[in-house]
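User: I'm putting together notes for a lab meeting next week and I want to include a structural view of one of the chains we've been expressing. I don't have a solved structure, so I'd like a prediction I can at least talk through. The sequence is below, exactly as it appears in our construct file.
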Amino acid sequence: LRGLPTTKMEVDTEYPGTAVERLRNIQERVRSLNSDDLSKEWEEVRRKILWAGGLKDLPHSRPGQGYTGHSFNDDNHCDLTPMLGEVAHNLHGGEIRGIAMGNRLGPGIEIASLPDLGPGGSWSTCTNGCHLEPPQDVAHVQFRARIAFKLVWAPPDFNSFVLVADGGEYLNQGRPTGELPDLRMRRANYQLVKGSKYAREADRLFEKVSGG
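Assistant: Thanks for the context. Below is the predicted structure for the 212-residue chain, given as structure tokens.
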């Protein structure tokens, strides 16, 4: 094989666990979704969000074995993290408040990740700790990876959401119908990001709706 060209994988020096190619492809998919895609029945919208993030819809798998029924369905599992294969098996050492020691995710990540978005895997990681700077959440601490996007429910009624990138930049938004996650969960989701860069676009959506 001597003399053949090699493809060098791009590395994020600040967060070297990031699957950079996968992150870019995920964000491209997120931007490709139109308002109709994100304003249908919630479960249909959620499946679109999983697909965009490179995750399979596996609502009947066992937790730890690829189960994604919780993904984007509560207050906390609302980060889409693309990580390199070698960090997918990283264990939590106790640095993140509210996250169990160990927090073994690796096998489930391998099972649930769609391979067509690039090297590495995807997972819906916990958002708590993201209000700090730098973020002290599962993506940035346990996996040393950036998020491709975060789902944030927007005040005042928490019936609309925004999808924002690692720096808080706008990617997309939706207003799904039908049976949404419990209102307490949607309100708590916003409280986890309130006052941080990840709340900016949700706050702007609120100001736009309220005419502020």
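A couple of points you could mention at the meeting. The chain has six helices and five strands. Residues 50 and 195 are 27 Å apart (CA to CA).

User: Perfect, that's what I needed.
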